[in-house]
C-alpha cells in the first residue's frame, strides 16, 4: 500500500515537477531547462549563501531550489518540501555538505509551489532523495547570473531527468518564483507557510497536495538531519535502487537511467513513519542488513523459501558449521591417506580438482588469462557440498575449461620435476590476489 | 553498499581462488607428506599421530584458503594472524622449552583475548538479549575475525567466507578422492 501511495504521489509529483520545470521565469524551454537552471542555480546559490545564516527566506525572487538543480529535471517536489522545511536554525545543508547551496536554496520556503511539490516521501527504496532534491533545485531559476557555484549537486541530475518532463506549468512556475521572493519575509515557520501557501496555489496540485503537506512536515526533519549526518556513499547501491524504482514509477518521458552519483545517502522518511533522525538511520541500517541477509540467503543452499531473520541466521550458522566440520573430516581423511609423491598424480589431481565440478568439455576456446572474468559462481556454488552431485555442468564447463587450459599451459611449461611444482605454486601465488 | 555485493559477486575470481588454493594446499601437503612416513598400522599411537597430522592438515588448509583469499578480507586476515601468533607462540615455547615461558605465553594470549572481549563488550553492547543476539554471538564465534565486526560487515564477511569455505571443501574432497584411489 505504501508503494501504491508512493506511486500516486509520484505521479502527482511528476506533474508538479513538470510545472516547476516550466516555471522558471527565464522562460526556458523545458528541454533546455536543466542547463539553464543549473546555471541559475549556481548563481542563486552564491547569492543565497550569505543570507543563509540569517534568514533562510531569501528576499530575492530566485528560488533556492534552483541551486539544487544540478539535475536536468525538476523531478521531485520532495526537494521543495525539503527546502522549505529546513528552518533557518539549520541553515546547513539538508543534503550534504557538498550541497550547501542547495540546502540554502531549499530553505526557500515561500514558494508555495514547492510546498506542494513536497508531496511524497518516497520510501527509501523507491526514490532517491537526491533525485528529489535535484529536481527541486531546477525548479526555480530566477534570472540570477551564474556565479559558478561548485556543481556539487550531483543528486539532482538523475532526479531531474527522471521526473521532470516538460509540462507546461510555466505560469505556475512564474508564480512560484514570485512567491519565493515574498516568502523570505516569513521566518521560522516556513513549513507552515509553505503549506498554507501551497494550498491555494496549486493549479496542478491535486489531492496529493495534502499528502504532500504531511509529508513535507515529515520530510523536512528527515531530510535535514539525514543530510547532515550522511555524507558517504553507500548510496551507490541505494541510489541505484532508488533510481530504478523511481524510474519505474515515474511516468515522465525523460526517465534517464543514469545512476545518481551521490556521495551521501539520501533517505526519505516514509509516509506515516517517524522522521526522527535516529529512526532514519536505523532504517537505513536495517535495510543494509536485510540486503546482506538476502545475499547470504542466496549462498546457503536451500534457503530460498525461508523468510525471517532468525531462521535464516540459524541456517547460516548451521551451514558454516557443517562446512567447517567437513574440512576437518577431510583433513583427517587426507592424514590417513598414504602420500603419493608421484608428480603425475599431482598433475592429474590438479586437473581433477579444478574440474571436479562437472564434465569438463575439451573446449579450448580461451586463453589463459581469462579466468577471472568468467562467471564462475554458479559452477562453484552448485556443487558446494561434496555429497551433492553437480547437476549443472553447463555452468561449470566454461570456466572449467578456461581454468583447465590455464593449468595445462602451466603444466606444459616443464612440469617434470618437483621444481615445477614450485613454479606452479609460485605462479599461482604470484597472481594478483584481487 | 555496492561494494559489498560486488565484492561478493565478483568472487569470480573464484576461479583464481580455486587455483591458488589448490596449488598452495597441494604444495604444503606434499611437503608434509615428505616429512612424515605413511601410516601403516592403526595403533593408538598412530591414532594420535593421525589426529595430529589431521590437525596440521586442517591448519594448512585454512592457511591456504586464507592466502588465496588475500589480505583484503577480514576473515582471511584474522586466520593468518591467528596462525602467525600461534606459530610464534610455538616457536617461543619450543625455544625456551620451559614451563614458565609456556605459561607466560598462554597467560599473555589469554589476557589479550580477555581484554579484547571486554573491549567488545563495552564498545556497543546492548543489554537486550534476544534470540537474534545469541545467534549473532554464535556467528561471530564461527566466522574468523567476527568478534570485532559490526553486524553489517559481519554478514559481508560471512558471505565471502561461506563461498571460500565451500570451495575449499570441494577441492579437498577432490584431493582426498584422488589420493584414496
UniProtKB/TrEMBL annotation, chain A:
It holds the Pfam family HLH. Residues 273-323 form the BHLH domain. It is found in: Nucleus. It comes from the Eukaryota. Residues 207-235, 249-265 have a biased composition (Basic and acidic residues). Residues 196-205, 236-248 have a biased composition (Polar residues). One of its GO terms (cellular component) is nucleus. Residues 159-265 are annotated as: Disordered. The keyword Lyase does not apply. Its main location: nucleus. Keywords: Nucleus, Transcription, Transcription regulation. GO terms for molecular function: DNA-binding transcription factor activity; protein dimerization activity. This is Transcription factor bHLH74 isoform X2.
UniProtKB/TrEMBL annotation, chain B:
It comes from the Eukaryota. Keywords: Nucleus, Transcription, Transcription regulation. InterPro entries: bHLH_AtIBH1-like, IBH1-like, IBH1_N. The keyword Membrane does not apply. Residues 17-86 form the IBH1-like N-terminal domain. It holds the Pfam family IBH1_N. Its main location: nucleus. It is found in: Nucleus. This is Transcription factor IBH1-like. It comes from Ziziphus jujuba (Chinese jujube). The lineage of its organism: Eukaryota, Viridiplantae, Streptophyta, Embryophyta, Tracheophyta.
Amino acid at each position: 500500500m505504501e508503494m501504491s501511495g508512493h506511486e500516486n504521489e509520484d505521479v502527482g509529483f511528476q506533474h508538479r515537477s513538470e510545472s516547476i520545470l516550466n516555471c522558471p521565469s527565464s522562460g526556458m524551454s523545458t528541454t533546455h531547462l536543466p542547463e539553464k537552471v543549473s546555471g541559475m542555480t549556481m548563481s542563486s546559490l552564491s547569492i543565497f549563501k550569505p543570507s543563509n545564516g540569517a534568514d533562510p527566506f531569501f528576499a530575492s525572487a530566485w528560488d533556492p531550489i534552483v541551486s539544487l538543480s544540478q539535475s536536468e529535471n525538476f523531478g521531485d517536489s520532495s526537494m521543495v518540501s525539503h527546502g522549505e522545511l529546513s528552518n533557518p536554525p539549520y541553515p546547513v545543508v539538508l543534503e550534504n555538505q557538498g550541497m550547501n547551496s542547495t540546502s540554502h536554496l531549499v530553505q526557500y520556503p515561500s514558494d508555495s509551489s514547492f510546498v506542494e511539490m513536497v508531496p511524497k516521501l518516497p520510501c527509501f527504496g523507491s526514490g532517491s532523495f537526491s533525485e528529489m532534491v535535484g529536481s527541486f533545485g531546477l525548479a526555480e531559476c530566477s534570472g540570477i547570473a551564474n556565479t559558478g557555484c561548485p556543481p556539487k549537486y550531483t543528486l539532482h541530475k538523475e532526479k531531474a531527468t527522471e521526473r521532470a518532463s516538460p509540462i507546461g506549468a510555466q505560469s505556475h512556475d512564474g508564480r512560484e518564483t514570485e512567491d519565493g521572493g515574498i516568502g523570505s519575509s516569513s521566518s521560522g515557520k516556513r513549513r507552515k507557510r509553505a503549506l498554507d501557501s501551497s494550498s491555494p496555489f496549486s493549479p496542478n496540485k491535486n489531492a496529493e497536495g495534502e499528502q504532500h503537506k504531511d509529508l513535507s512536515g515529515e520530510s523536512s526533519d528527515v531530510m535535514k538531519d539525514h543530510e547532515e549526518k550522511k555524507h558517504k556513499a553507500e548510496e551507490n547501491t541505494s541510489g541505484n535502487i532508488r533510481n530504478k524504482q523511481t524510474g519505474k514509477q515515474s511516468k515522465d518521458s525523460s526517465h534517464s537511467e543514469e545512476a545518481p552519483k551521490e556521495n551521501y545517502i539520501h533517505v526519505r522518511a516514509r509516509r506515516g513513519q517517524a522522521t526522527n533522525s535516529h529512526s532514519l538511520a536505523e532504517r537505513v541500517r536495517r535495510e543494509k542488513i536485510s540486503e546482506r541477509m538476502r545475499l547470504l540467503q542466496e549462498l546457503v543452499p536451500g534457503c530460498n523459501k525461508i523468510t525471517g531473520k532468525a531462521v535464516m541466521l540459524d541456517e547460516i550458522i548451521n551451514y558454516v558449521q557443517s562446512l567447517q566440520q567437513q574440512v576437518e573430516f577431510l583433513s583427517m581423511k587426507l592424514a590417513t591417506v598414504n602420500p603419493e609423491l608421484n608428480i603425475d598424480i599431482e598433475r592429474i589431481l590438479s586437473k581433477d580438482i579444478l574440474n571436479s565440478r562437472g564434465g569438463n568439455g575439451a573446449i579450448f576456446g580461451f586463453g589463459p588469462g581469462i579466468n577471472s572474468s568468467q562467471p564462475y559462481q554458479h559452477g562453484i556454488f552448485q556443487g558446494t557440498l561434496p555429497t551433492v552431485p553437480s547437476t549443472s555442468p553447463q555452468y561449470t564447463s566454461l570456466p572449467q575449461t578456461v581454468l583447465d587450459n590455464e593449468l595445462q599451459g602451466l603444466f606444459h611449461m616443464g612440469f617434470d620435476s618437483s621444481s615445477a611444482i614450485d613454479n606452479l605454486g609460485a605462479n599461482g601465488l604470484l597472481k594478483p590476489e584481487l | 553498499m555496492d561494494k559489498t555485493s560486488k565484492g561478493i559477486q565478483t568472487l569470480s575470481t573464484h576461479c583464481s581462488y580455486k587455483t591458488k588454493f589448490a596449488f598452495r594446499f597441494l604444495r604444503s601437503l606434499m611437503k608434509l607428506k615428505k616429512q612424515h612416513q605413511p601410516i601403516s598400522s592403526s595403533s593408538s599411537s598412530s591414532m594420535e599421530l593421525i589426529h595430529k597430522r589431521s590437525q596440521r592438515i586442517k591448519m594448512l588448509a585454512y592457511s591456504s584458503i586464507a592466502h588465496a583469499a588475500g589480505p583484503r578480507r577480514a576473515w582471511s586476515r584474522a586466520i593468518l594472524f591467528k596462525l602467525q601468533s600461534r606459530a610464534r607462540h610455538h616457536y617461543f615455547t619450543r625455544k625456551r622449552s620451559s614451563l614458565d615461558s609456556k605459561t607466560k605465553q598462554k597467560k599473555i594470549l589469554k589476557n589479550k583475548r580477555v581484554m579484547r572481549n571486554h573491549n567488545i563488550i563495552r564498545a556497543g553492547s546492548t543489554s537486550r538479549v534476544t534470540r537474534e543476539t545469541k545467534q549473532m554471538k554464535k556467528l561471530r564465534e564461527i566466522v574468523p575475525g567476527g568478534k570485532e565486526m559490526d553486524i553489517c560487515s559481519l554478514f559481508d564477511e560471512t558471505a565471502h567466507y561461506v563461498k571460500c569455505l565451500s570451495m575449499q571443501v570441494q577441492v579437498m574432497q577432490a584431493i582426498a578422492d584422488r589420493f584414496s584411489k
